Every structure is written in structure tokens, then in C-alpha cells.
Amino acid sequence: MALVRMRNTQGANATEIEKKIKRGNALRQSSTWRGSRGSVALLLVALSVCLAAVGLYLTSLDGEITETLVSQSELVTPKPRVFTVQCSEDYENYKRYPGCTPQKCGRAVTDSVVTRDEAEVLRRLAERGLELAGSEGGASILDLHSGALSMGKQFVNIYRYFGDQIRDVFSQEDFQLYRDVRGRIQAVIAETFDLDPTRMYLTKPTFFSRINGTTAKTQHDEYWHPHIDKVTYGSFDYTSLLYLSDYGSDFTGGRFVFMDQNENRTVEPRAGRVSFFTSGSENLHRVEKVTWGTRYAITVSFTCDPAHAISDPSLP
Ligand SMILES: *[C@@H]1O[C@H](CO)[C@@H](O)[C@H](O)[C@H]1NC(C)=O
Ligand SMILES: *[C@@H]1O[C@H](CO)[C@@H](O)[C@H](O)[C@H]1NC(C)=O
């Protein structure tokens, strides 16, 4: 009996064990299902994290810009848009020139000093001049004052190199327009910063620039490093830029960036747009690398020190 009972219990036990095993299998099956649902969810989460990271990376390419002071599509007219910043101590290390040394500092942008037609004439002038040579590294300059023109890894003097033939490239009218435009820029800077325009002088370097996305070959081609004009060129007190092409349609990248303590503030180039600022540390800046197309601009610099004055260019 005992044996039979035992066998019976064993039988019962066996069926119960079978049931348990079956239940276990069922449980295991559902948990595999739950498990795979879990991994699908995990995969989705991972995927969205990846997408978010890519998105963040893409915006971070642009994300260094924290504020757009003036976009390409805006038209700043008739008055310049002025952004005041506190003057740095740089000016204290230099002789002060009444009527010129900055008393107030800042940056400003105007689209009403140079017309788009004038900008086009000047861009053509730049194209013709720079066509004569150009840097190998994608950043070329033409300085009509000194005659310096990028050529390969160096510079040549266009007036010496091309002699009278330069008259086939530039006309008197071109030079007249150039002088005229620099006078207007000087006037708007003086008005904006309450200066005496007769006490500010054009200084060097003042030049045309042509930039494209070609890899830099020499240091001259590396225009994108952050810098302070007054530190780089002691004579500068006011820097201005006249843009000759449009950000977005003529080129991409190449925006001008003021690098402030907690913000990167950009001015988007627009043909005919003049952007100007005091040259001290209050205006640390850089130009983004050009990623596509060609960017033309003119840098026009002013000093308060008559010893650093240069004269307007004229055809030989
Ligand atoms: C970029 O400029 C360099 C010279 O500075 C020139 O050799 C090159 O052809 C230009 N590239 C384009 C795409 O215009
Ligand atoms: C400004 O841009 C620079 C690089 O150009 C970057 O290192 C810095 O973090 C940016 N600053 C801000 C506040 O985004």
C-alpha cells in the first residue's frame, strides 16, 4: 500500500511537476515575449538617443551662434542699428586723441550707406583684381593702397607687377567709387560714435577679400581664428566691413561672429551692408569658415593716430 501510495503520490507528483513545467514554459514564453518587447523598446530609446545626439551635433555646428544681431534678409535702414558694449581697457595703453579715441564702444550695422548696385560694381572690381592671381589657399586679398595682391603662397605688388596695364583692369570710376564709399563709411562711424570725422584716418591694412572653402595653404589663409583688431594691428581704432556678397545665396558659412563672454553674436553678410565696431577687446571676433561659394568683402580700417594714416589709392 505504502508502495502503491508512494507510486501514486509519485504519479501525482509527476503530473504536478509536468503541470509546473508547462506553466514554467508558458511563463518563460511570455517572459521572452515581454523580454523582446523590452528590447524593442530599448532599441527605440537608443535610436531616439542617437537621433537626438545627431540633431544636437548638427545644431551645435550652428549652435555656437547664440544670437543673430542682423540676418541677411533684414534691411537696416535708414539709421544704423547700434549695439553698445563697454569699452575695454585697451585704449588706456595708447595715446588718447580727442575727437577720435573711443569714448563709447560698440558695434553697428547699416544697409543704407552703400547701395546693392555699388556693392556689385565693387565686387566686380574685386573679381577682376583677384583674377590676376590669388592665394592657393582659398583666402585672397587685394589691397589697392599698397598694391598687395595674394599670389600663390605670397603677395605681389600689382602696380609694379602689371605697371600701366592695371588701367585695363581698373577704371578711374572704380577708384572714385572706392574713395567715395570709404568717405561715407568714415562719416557714418563718426556720427555713430560721436567723433570728429576729420580726426580719424584711414589706416592699413584696408583691403578686398575673397574667401572660398578651399583648405588653407599658409597662415595668411587662416582667417577664422578669433582675434582683436587692436591687438593684431595696434593702429586700429575702428574697423569696418563692407560686404559685397550675400550669406546664404552666394556662400554658406562665412558669418561674422562677435565672441562675447556668454554669447556668440553674428552679423550675416549682405551685399551693400556695412558693419563697423570699435577695434578693442570689447569686440573679440572671428569669421566662420566658408563652406560653399565665394565671399567678397572690403575691410576698411581707421586710426586716431595721424602717424598711421594712409592715403586713398589712385591709379598709377
Ligand atoms: C577657391 O579659391 C582658390 C584660390 O584662392 C581657387 O584656386 C579655387 O579654384 C577656388 N575654388 C572654387 C570652387 O571657386
Ligand atoms: C562661441 O563659439 C566658440 C567657438 O567659436 C565656442 O567655443 C564657445 O563655446 C561659444 N560660446 C557660446 C556661449 O556658445
From TrEMBL:
<keyword id="KW-0408">Iron</keyword>
<dbReference type="GO" id="GO:0016020">
    <property type="term" value="C:membrane"/>
</dbReference>
<feature type="domain" description="Fe2OG dioxygenase">
    <location>
        <begin position="206"/>
        <end position="305"/>
    </location>
</feature>
<keyword id="KW-0812">Transmembrane</keyword>
<dbReference type="Pfam" id="PF13640">
    <property type="entry name" value="2OG-FeII_Oxy_3"/>
</dbReference>
<protein>
    <submittedName>
        <fullName>Urotensin-2 receptor 2</fullName>
    </submittedName>
</protein>
<dbReference type="InterPro" id="IPR006620">
    <property type="entry name" value="Pro_4_hyd_alph"/>
</dbReference>
<dbReference type="InterPro" id="IPR044862">
    <property type="entry name" value="Pro_4_hyd_alph_FE2OG_OXY"/>
</dbReference>
<keyword id="KW-0223">Dioxygenase</keyword>
<dbReference type="InterPro" id="IPR039210">
    <property type="entry name" value="OGFOD3"/>
</dbReference>
<keyword id="KW-1133">Transmembrane helix</keyword>
<dbReference type="GO" id="GO:0005506">
    <property type="term" value="F:iron ion binding"/>
</dbReference>
<keyword id="KW-0479">Metal-binding</keyword>
<keyword id="KW-0560">Oxidoreductase</keyword>
<dbReference type="GO" id="GO:0031418">
    <property type="term" value="F:L-ascorbic acid binding"/>
</dbReference>
<keyword id="KW-0675">Receptor</keyword>
<dbReference type="InterPro" id="IPR005123">
    <property type="entry name" value="Oxoglu/Fe-dep_dioxygenase_dom"/>
</dbReference>
<dbReference type="GO" id="GO:0051213">
    <property type="term" value="F:dioxygenase activity"/>
</dbReference>
<keyword id="KW-0472">Membrane</keyword>
<dbReference type="GO" id="GO:0016705">
    <property type="term" value="F:oxidoreductase activity, acting on paired donors, with incorporation or reduction of molecular oxygen"/>
</dbReference>
<feature type="transmembrane region" description="Helical">
    <location>
        <begin position="38"/>
        <end position="58"/>
    </location>
</feature>
